[in-house]
Amino acid sequence: MRSPLARFYNLDSTTMGIPIRVLVAKPGLDGHDRGAKVIARALRDAGMEVIYTGLRQTPEMIVNAALQEDVQVIGLSILSGAHNAIVPRLMELLREKGMTDVLVVVGGIIPDEDAAELKKLGVAEVFQPGASLEKIIQFIRDSVKQAA
After folding, report:
1. Which of 24, 54, 107, 117 could lock 127 by a disulfide, CB 3.0 to 4.6 Å apart?
2. 5-142 has which CATH code?
3. What sign for the dihedral angle of Cα 74, 80, 86, 87?
4. What are 14-55's pLDDT values in tens digits?
5. pTM score, whole prediction
6. What SS3 state is found at 128?
7. Burial of 137 (0-12, 13-18, 19+ CB in 10 A)
8. For residue 44, what is the enclosing H or E element?
9. CA nearest 72: which of 2, 138, 141?
10. 31 DSSP assignment
């Protein structure tokens, strides 16, 4: 059964009739995944197909899952402060696997100066605490449609 929020999110999360596929991952040793689950549910309610990898994923595990699931978007939820170690490795692995067309977004507690550095590495957007679900959904929709 679809969530009542689905109407609120304006179900337009497809590219040529195919749902946008998003992998949501919790890299590193951070054990707090409530935010990642909230995001995953909101994306699903917005009509996207969401694969949630669970806690304590390595960059290698995330990239392999993204490759196997043929996703268009990887969303990382990082609260541990390890973003400066995890994200560069993930971006390097995506390049090695020829997956440069996969949109990478990061959410969590990330200082502005670190967010700017992550964007230089190829991260499409960094969502800090307080970012609205609507903004995240719309950013993904707009970015995937532009790439299609």
Report:
1. 107
2. 3.40.50.280
3. positive
4. 555 789 999 999 998 888 889 899 999 999 999 999 999 989
5. 0.88
6. coil
7. buried
8. helix 34-45
9. 141
10. -
